[in-house]
Description:
It is built from 14 helices and 23 strands. Residues about 1-35, about 35-40, about 130-170 and about 305-310 have low confidence and may be disordered. The N and C termini lie far apart (about 55 Å). It has about 500 residues and is α/β, with parallel strands linked by helices. The longest helix has 28 residues, at about 450-475.
Amino acid sequence: MRRGTGGIAGDDYTRGVSDASRRARTTSARGVTPVRPSLLSATAVKNAVVVGAGPCGLLASLELVQNGASVTLVEQRNGYTRPIHWNVRADLLHRIAETCPGALQRVLERLGAIESAESIDATTTTLPPEKLEALRKDKPQRRVTIGPSGLVLQQKGVAAPPADAQRARFGGRTMLKSASVGQILTVDLENILFGELERIAAQPKGDRPSVTILRNHRLELVDSADKKGFKACTAYEVTERTEPGGKAVFAATGKRIRLGTPDLIVSCDGANSQMRTMAGIARTHVSAPTRFIAASIASAAISAEAPHGGLARRRYAEVTNPEDGKVHGLRQVVLGITTAPQSWVLVEVPPWVDLTTKEATADFFYAHAAPVVGRSEAELRKLPVTWGPNPFGIQQYISATAVHGENVIFAGDAVGSAHFLTSGGVMVATVPHIFALEKLLANLADGVPRKIALDRYDRWALAGTKEWLRLGFGEFGRRGAQTETFESAMAAALERLRHARGSA
């Protein structure tokens, strides 16, 4: 069996031969941007605009360049600062190896190995014994190395996943349930991928795809004057100001850049997508709401006793609503790796707790973070806080569609979002959604009618999001905030979206 240098070797995880062969790349004598040879002269998407330079938008841009398209990347932020920790599964490493193999080694260098465990406050919980045992089990982590034939994953204590090239492609159910290979800071992953795009942007243009990066810009959609159903777009400059607590505020400067009518606009601008709002696409909830408080604390969970220098610890405890006597299960989480100077701490908040003041937010956070961090509340308050504690609401959502008109598609959280405790956000955005983009580009290059190709992308993107929603739904239900099944909640959500489309 042949494997490319960017592929994955090892008996426990293998991609399909046909897929590896189809994605073979060539590199010029200068060693610059690789482009698939079959698409150098016959690409249906020659110019594209990508909105949002998070992991999804960065990989979408790199995928488009690999398919021979020149890309303009539009991002409202000036730089990367998010201290969020993400669990990385093997499928994301596959995608990076295929789309931008030059970044793989740097990602692995920033990947922190972890030991993961769940604890339960057994004195207060009402969970049945079998669920308690399931929660208590350690979650094994894979070890990652690079061998002569590429990436090698070694997993102990868990049966190896099947050698099925399609297992994580569209729906991603198996991918989302697989063990992580470690953790990485969002800012690290973004900087690595952004560096790849900057390298391409600096290359001599010639007849190769170009990359233009517009920092501190947002995108505006208008109807194209010459292409029916297509959208033209204009980028407008914004200034960024950070408020106390870390919230970014943007204001337009009045400067604008007309980008014409691209062959494709890919919106990766997050759960509160402005592009989705401009397109008039409805979205609806698929869960009850809950709240968390998050903070980035210096070295809170880095433990010399951890075998691999890091911890991912989750704690479950139950509290009773003083008003109605109902029991609510709450989760506390701490994530820390040796490759990051700080740890990410999350505390779930019951609905009756008042967080209207910073003092109330901090008091609740420190009191409930101390048990999962493993420090006293007094000790925890002495540790430097680099971000937060900030409260945020969370509720699962899905959009009515991932396609708008003839040339606008959505990916990542702009399609839908689910519970972050599944670690599914970056994974769905960068694996099934980017694979759906890859297939869309291949369909268009092969002459598939645009409407059919876009309909396929719509189904594929929504399928990946629905699997994340399905897994995330259980995180809400486990805490007593959810009384219906996922199937009934999804059916109700789809009915609301049908009604919204009918009344539009």
